Amino acid sequence: MNSKINHLDDVKISKRLSYLLRHGAIREGLDINPDGFVSLVEVLQKLPDCTTADIRRVVSTNSKNRFTLVEDEDRGLQIKANQGHSLPSVNRLSLKPLINPNFQIIHGTYLRNWNIIKTQGLSRMKRNHIHFSKDLNFTCGLRRTAEVFIFINYSQSIENGIEFFESENGVILSPGDEYGVIEPRYFSKVVTRDNKLLSSNNSTN
After folding, report:
1. CA triplet 87, 121, 139: central angle to 5 degrees?
2. How many other β-carbons are positioned within 10 Å of the β-carbon of residue 67?
3. Which end of the chain is more exposed for a tag (fewer CB within 10 A), N or C?
């Protein structure tokens, strides 16, 4: 096998890529474009035990489609994370505005966070967006270990200027309000994994 890293370590490669492409590019001296792309040659310099073949495999097999790898005619192979960035300079991601979706917008979190969220709302924290899923199948936008599911009232949110977008891998993103927050008044309902109702708003999506 030509790869220097065993396939069992693909998770480690994915985590390292996520850090470099979402958060650490500038700190690590990588030239990251506003659209999130970085030269694969530069990335591989930060992953000395990894090959181009390893990267291709991780990108193609990642269950959440976290990365995009493209061949640029002038710049060669370029790679980006599709969402999850905390770098303010990455502000031209390929995001599709969400207009009148025919699905529910759901944020997954943990019981330990609920007491703060129910009073202060959802915050994008250090990231550029708050992440949501289209459903409860844990494919994109939801952690498999999430214990609490917050359903968002899309209509009310849009009426008050909160925008939503869909990333290339199907994750729903929102920058929140001017403070980077989606307040609890925009939660249509909140339930636990075992369907216990924690909160409900009579308004509907």
Report:
1. 65
2. 21
3. N
Distance from C-alpha of 92 to C-alpha of 71, rounded to nearest angstrom: 19
Burial readout 10-33 (b: 16 or more C-beta within 10 A, e: otherwise): beebbebbbebbbbbbeeeebebe
Token digits for 177? 């309000």
Q: How far apart are CA 96 and CA 23, in angstroms?
A: 22
Which letter does DSSP use for residue 9 in this model?
A: G
Convert the pLDDT of each residue in 113-132 to its tens digit: 999 999 999 999 999 999 99
202 to 153, 156, 187, 188: CA distances (angstroms):
10, 12, 10, 7
CA geometry: angle 48, 53, 55, nearest 5 deg:
65
For tokens 């917050």, name the residue: 150
Residue 184 in tokens = 């609890």
Q: To which H or E segment does residue 187 belong? A: strand 187-192
Task: At 116, give phi and psi (nearest 5°).
Answer: -80, -45
User: Given CA atoms 15, 21, 141, 117 in this order, what sign does their dihedral have?
Assistant: positive
Tokens 């869909």 found at = 166
| Residues 127, 86 contacting (CB under 8 angstroms) | yes
Residues 25-60: tens digit of each pLDDT:
999 999 999 999 999 999 999 998 899 999 999 999
